[in-house]
Amino acid sequence: MDSPLDLATLVERLDYFRGAPRRRQPSGAHKEWQHFIVHAPDIHALINFNIIDHAWSERATPRAHVIVLVRALDRAGWDGDVERFHDGAYAVAEGRVDARFGANTLRFCDGRYHLHVRSRDRAIRADIELRPVSIPVLSNNQRLAGGRRISWVFVPRLVASGVIWLDGQRYAIESAPAYHDHNWGEFRWGEDL
Predict the structure, then answer these.
(1) Is residue 183 a contact partner of residue 33, using CB atoms and an 8 Å limit?
(2) SS3 letters across the chain
(3) pLDDT digits over 41-100, tens only?
(4) Whose CA is closest to 192, among 138, 141, 139, 147?
(5) Half-sphere exposure of residue 75, counting CA atoms within 13 Å on the CB side?
(6) CA–CA distances in Å: residue 141 to residues 12, 27, 54, 96, 166
């Protein structure tokens, strides 16, 4: 009898960068993002690595973004930024969770997601490891209006450890609950989703 797959193997088999479809079929508005939320007692964080490929225009080149929002509970409000990266400033390894967007990296190795974030314009840094503790779920090729499609993998429960620095103040993260989803598809913002 075959042994059941461990969580790390399931993540590796399901949650990898698909890559822009322009090399396969230039059909339009490919989007792909890896999204993480961490709820530590002293700080909450949203970190998102995403790529938008507007292949319908010959002049358009893919763009990558890192979105970072943090809320330290000893301060008022959220802080964060959206950093944009163009060709050459980012690299994504298709078939794996392995990406570099400027000084920011996302990897899956040793059974954990590793986030390394260095905001260019805001005093925000993060080094976080997220260990899956629930089975990843795949929803593939869900139909949207206009014949478009979206797919996603989500890991509803992870355990996060590491550190976030905000304006020079260090916030430790120890066994904090976290969430992850990875979405990809071909659609345009503003369409009927």
Answers:
(1) yes
(2) CCCCCCHHHHHHHHCCCCCCHHHCCCCCEEEEEEEEEEECCCEEEEEEEEEEEECCCCCCCCEEEEEEEEEECCCCCCEEEEEEECCCCEEECCCCCEEEECCEEEEEECCEEEEEEECCCCCEEEEEEEEECCCCEEEEEEECHHHCEEEEEEEEEEEEEEEEEECCEEEEEEEEEEEEEEEEEECCCCCCC
(3) 999 999 999 988 765 445 566 789 999 999 999 999 999 999 999 878 998 888 899 999
(4) 147
(5) 12
(6) 19, 15, 19, 19, 39
